[in-house]
UniProtKB/TrEMBL annotation:
The keyword Transport does not apply. Pfam families: LRR_8. It is found in: Membrane. Keywords: Leucine-rich repeat, Membrane, Repeat, Signal. PANTHER family: LEUCINE-RICH REPEAT (LRR) FAMILY PROTEIN, LRR RECEPTOR-LIKE SERINE_THREONINE-PROTEIN KINASE GSO1. It comes from Gossypium barbadense. One of its GO terms (cellular component) is membrane. The lineage of its organism: Eukaryota, Viridiplantae, Streptophyta, Embryophyta, Tracheophyta. This is Leucine-rich repeat-containing N-terminal plant-type domain-containing protein.
């Protein structure tokens, strides 16, 4: 029979739980102290689950409650269970503070309180549990800083405090950690090397969804046992990467997405031999995609979407022996094959959407700069020639107009487009048009796609569509000289799904949502943190 202290602790635990939260089928419902000894065997009708005792049936060594929705405050009398090695109360409704008397559980190896409603700070007394190997208090409402004495838990191998409301800096961490999870809190400051000193066995680091800032030093990815690192959704501004010593590293997966990292994509990630998953999505990276990424045989998942990357993606991504999933969307890239899953419509392709077919690729010089007044003409494509001069009056039955890649100049005049009530597609990019693009242009009644990128336009006027109706789907005004605030009225075009303004110095309207702003991939926005 267990000692009386153990029995009184078990009675106090059940008494602290609201009776109406103990289902008839649950473990606690079978705890009948008047009918049976908690450690007596066999357990057919009483104490059927939730408790494990020592071999001599004198001490309670494990409490593992079922996830039955128990609700109550954790009794301080649990401290009497001095031979307890496992305490698991996960996935229930315990609330209130964690009692400081828990420090008396000197034999405790595993403490799992995850997915409850515990609040208050983590008691410093937890850090006196010298035998503790696994601590999981994730998915609660704990607040305040992490105990400064965390590193005194010399035997701790796994620490998970994710999804609480913890604040402050990272303290010095226990040096025997294998896994660290602190994601989904409000931790801040730099990720300092001093916090990780001596952690030679650390394999998994999850620090995403916090408020860490500044530079992540090269030392971090050189932690000798590191395999997985998730630092997404913070406010890091710079990442330093060094080649691993001797070319040896166990690093497999890195997520640095949704930070504020600037500069070129770090080439040295390609020197980590086991790296198979890399996410740098939605940062502020510029320049070209490193060719080294495409030559890395181990890389299987690559997310670079939502940056300011330019040029053509390495061709190795789209053929040969390399097979990579992920996304390159929302950049300033060109020539990304639409057939590639990296550039699929769902990933936001980089080439402007086209309805036109069979484009002309001739570089012949045409003697005339004006098309004939062909009243029946529905499709006109004179792209990629050496045409000069102004736009004439256009055939009024046109559905598709493509004049890109010439040397046409002057203003884009309303008189050229008068009466074009059926015009759906306009491609005037890569010319030398100047001045103001009037509000009349986007009010053309059938217009769906407009590509005016790579010109010298200096101003764009936008008006709300009449009655709120418009078929406009895609607009490209990138690589012009347009200044001023981003045109607010683009938000009034109900079908608009693609808006690009690369290298356009717009100021973002303060009331535009993040989702709305993100349509303008690659803009040099000001006024956005």
């Amino acid at each position: 029979m267990p000692c009386r202290h153990d029995i009184s602790a078990l009675k106090a635990l059940k008494a602290s739980i609201k009776p109406n939260s103990i289902p008839s089928w649950s473990c606690l419902a079978s705890w009948d102290f008047a009918a049976a000894d908690p450690c007596a065997l066999p357990r057919r009708t009483h104490f059927t689950c939730g408790i494990i005792c020592s071999l001599d049936s004198t001490r309670v060594t494990q409490i593992t409650l079922d996830p039955a929705g128990y609700s109550g405050q954790l009794t301080p009398l649990l401290s009497q269970l001095t031979q307890l090695t496992i305490l698991d109360l996960s996935d229930n409704g315990f609330f209130g503070s964690i009692p400081s008397s828990i420090s008396s559980l000197s034999s405790l190896q595993t403490l799992i309180l995850k997915s409850n409603s515990f609040s208050g700070s983590i008691p410093d007394s937890v850090t006196t549990l010298k035998s503790l190997e696994s601590l999981d208090i994730s998915h609660n409402s704990l607040s305040g800083p992490l105990p400064k004495t965390f590193n005194s838990l010399s035997g701790l191998r796994r620490l998970d405090l994710s999804y609480n409301q913890l604040t402050g800096f990272l303290p010095k961490l226990p040096y025997n950690l294998l896994e660290l999870a602190l994601k989904g809190n409000s931790l801040s400051g730099y990720i300092s090397k001093s916090s990780f000193d001596g952690l030679t066995q650390l394999e998994v680091v999850e620090l995403s969804e916090n408020s860490f800032t500044g530079t992540l030093g090269a030392w971090f990815f050189l932690l000798p046992a590191l395999q997985q690192a998730d630092l997404a959704n913070n406010s890091l501004t710079r990442v330093e990467i060094s080649k691993p010593s001797g070319g040896n590293s166990d690093l497999v997966a890195v997520d640095l997405g949704f930070n504020h990292i600037e500069g070129n994509a770090p080439t040295d990630f390609a020197n980590y031999p086991q790296l198979s998953s890399l996410s740098l999505r939605y940062n502020r990276l510029r320049g070209a995609i490193p060719l080294e990424y495409s030559k890395k045989k181990s890389l299987r998942r690559l997310f670079l979407d939502g940056n300011f990357l330019i040029g053509r993606p390495p061709s190795e991504f789209f053929g040969g022996d390399t097979w990579v999933s992920g996304s390159l969307g929302n950049n300033c890239l060109v020539g990304c094959p639409g057939s590639s899953q990296l550039c699929s419509p769902s990933q936001k392709p980089y080439e402007f959407p086209r309805l036109l077919r069979r484009p002309l690729h001739s570089r012949r010089s045409l003697s005339r700069s004006q098309p004939p007044p062909l009243s029946g003409l529905r499709r006109l494509d004179l792209s990629y020639n050496q045409l000069t001069g102004f736009l004439p009056k256009l055939p009024y039955n046109l559905l598709e107009l493509a004049l890109k890649g010439n040397s046409l100049s002057g203003y884009i005049s309303k008189s050229s487009f008068d009466g074009l009530t059926q015009l759906e597609v306009v491609e005037l990019s890569e010319n030398s048009f100047t001045g103001t693009l009037g509000a009349w242009f986007f009010l053309l009644p059938a217009l769906q796609q407009a590509d005016l990128a790579n010109n010298s336009l200096t101003r764009v006027e936008i008006s709300k569509p009449s009655g709120g109706n418009s078929d406009l789907v895609a607009v490209d005004l990138g690589f012009n000289h347009i200044e001023g605030n981003a045109p607010t009225d683009f938000a009034n075009y109900p079908q608009l799904s693609s808006l690009r303004c690369v290298t356009t110095a717009y100021v973002a309207p303060s009331h535009w949502s993040t989702a709305r702003r993100s349509r303008c991939d690659g803009c040099f926005w000001t006024g956005i943190s």
